[in-house]
Specification:
Layout (H helix, E strand, L loop, with lengths): L2 E7 L3 E8 L5 E8 L5 E2 L1 H14 L6 E8 L5 E3 L9 E2 L7 H11 L2 H8 L8 H11 L1 H6 L2 E3 L1 H14 L6 H5 L10 E3 H4 L5 E2 L4 E2 L1 H8 L7 E3 L6 E5 L2 E5 L3 E2 H8 L6 E6 L3 E5 L13 E4 L5 E7 L3 H11 L3 H8 L10 E3 L16 E3 L8 H23 L5 E5 L6 H11 L3 E3 L5 H12 L12 E3 L5 H10 L6
């Protein structure tokens, strides 16, 4: 059996799965936590990766490995390869003003959308580099190279493998650093920097220089099946795949194909599609990313997804399982009760100071079942708005994430989206996607899930019509 390893280095933790390269069967796995915070020294990621590999039983028998990581994080290295300062993560918002300034300096949102497919926001790497140049000029001057979290971990793995020593957590902890020109990335993760163009397939170093004042060493952008490196690892030769960003790996992990839309229901919501052409949305609602296969991955974020169900479950004094049961007791449309779930403001549409609201409350609809149904329908309407922002009619909608485990969410979703819903089994989609990418260096993998479920239901357009009317009457 030939094995591959997939890594998910997320904000919260590092997860490693080791799978059969041909079938995708899980062989073993491990995980380790990351520290909290919006700025973290990358050494914590490296230590967590090594602990997760150790918990997964090491790398014996592994022929290829791939790292998927949280997007956008700014990792600055000096000329010796040492980390200049703690990495600023995607969720660090100190560069919000830098995003505003950069957008204006280039001539507005349309100019950025045309250049790199996305309008800068605080999460993008380019805005963090502008912040660094303005607020920590000494660290900016020390910066000889800039990379992303998955790039840095791939680079560290290459250094450890180049030593020729078999995996050992303590021995690999201080593995030598490769030269800076050995840094690599992939087009998916590069497309979230704000200085790489998905449509052109090249870095926009002019934008980077305008933001940062100079152009440091940047990772070489690899093709989908190109090796980052190959090195002796004990008695065998382990290949390192390009790796990618977490959203791109999730698309691989669920088997998304062209024309599919993936709706991810975490605390917040993400809607992304596998597309054959690049996108450029000047409104900023759609991030025009590339994917990990040579295609594109337009993506929309919402702030309110599973947290809506958590909030209403607290109000009703029930658990999430009982909330699901209650929701299915009320009719589609909840007899007109409509919940607008802007509980933490909203990103799509851009309403940062908005609050949630309930409309259509009557004596008849003043029941826990109606409230539960309205909460789930409102959450799904918000994600349907995100899908509308993508501007495409999906051939298939795949529902993933924690809230997708709710039976009510699965059964109500077709009535809101108006298409059948496919629900893959719960899994570590990002790590699995990375493992799949690693397998493509060795074979043509055929990883199929037998547990995928499909949910169908008649569309109820009135649900979205009432929701649209309700969103015009909210309080900031």
């Amino acid at each position: 059996m030939t094995l591959v390893a997939g890594v998910d280095s997320s904000t919260q933790s590092c997860k490693v799965v080791i799978r059969d390269a041909e079938t995708g069967a899980l062989v073993r796995q491990g995980r380790a936590p990351h520290p909290d915070g919006t700025e973290v020294h990358p050494s914590h990621w490296w230590a967590a990766l090594l602990r997760a590999i150790e918990e997964a039983g090491g790398l014996d028998g592994v022929a290829a490995i791939s790292v998927a990581g949280q997007q956008h994080g700014m990792v600055c290295l000096d000329e010796s390869g040492n980390v200049v300062r703690d990495a600023l993560l995607w969720n660090d918002t100190r560069s919000a003003q830098a995003a505003v300034d950069l957008t204006a300096e280039l001539g507005g949102p349309q100019a950025w959308a045309d250049a790199v497919g996305s309008v800068p926001v605080a999460s993008f790497t380019v805005t963090k580099l502008r912040w660094l140049a303005e607020h920590e000029p000494g660290n900016a001057r020390r910066t000889a190279a800039v990379c992303l979290p998955h790039d840095w971990l791939t680079w560290r793995l290459a250094g450890a493998l180049a030593s020729g020593a078999p995996f050992d957590r303590e021995a690999w902890q201080d593995a030598p650093l490769p030269p800076l020109d050995h840094l690599t990335t992939d087009r998916g993760d590069a497309s979230g920097t704000g200085y790489w163009s998905p449509s052109m397939g090249t870095y926009r170093t002019d934008l980077l220089k305008a933001a940062f004042g100079t152009v440091p060493v940047l990772p070489r952008v690899l093709g989908p099946t190109e090796e980052a490196t190959g090195a002796a690892a004990g008695s065998g030769r382990m290949l390192i795949a390009p790796g990618t960003g977490d959203n791109m790996a999730a698309a691989l992990g669920v088997g998304a194909r062209s024309g599919d839309v993936v709706v991810s229901l975490g605390t917040s919501g993400t809607v992304f599609a596998v597309a054959e052409s690049s996108s450029a949305d000047p409104s900023g609602a759609v991030a025009g990313f590339a994917d990990a296969t040579g295609r594109f991955l337009p993506l929309v974020c919402t702030l309110n997804a599973a947290r809506v169900m958590d909030a209403v479950a607290r109000i009703a004094g029930v658990g999430l399982g009982e909330l699901s049961d209650l929701a299915l007791q009320a009719p589609p449309g909840a007899d007109g009760l409509t919940l607008v779930p802007y509980l933490e403001g909203e990103r799509t549409p851009n309403r940062p100071t908005a609050t949630g609201s309930i409309h259509g409350l009557t004596l008849a609809t003043s029941t826990p079942a109606h409230l539960a149904r309205a909460a789930i329908e409102g959450m799904l309407c918000g994600l349907a708005d995100a899908l509308d922002a993508l501007g495409m009619r999906p051939e298939r909608v795949l529902l993933i994430g924690g809230a997708a485990r709710s039976e009510a969410v699965r059964r109500i979703a077709p009535t809101v989206f108006g298409v059948p819903i496919t629900v893959p089994p719960p899994a570590e989609y990002v790590a699995n996607g990375a493992a799949y990418q690693a397998a493509t260096l060795l074979t043509t993998p055929d990883w199929r899930s037998e547990d995928t479920a499909t949910y169908e239901g008649e569309a109820v357009p009135e649900i979205r019509h009432r929701y649209a009317r309700a969103t015009a009457h909210i309080l900031d």
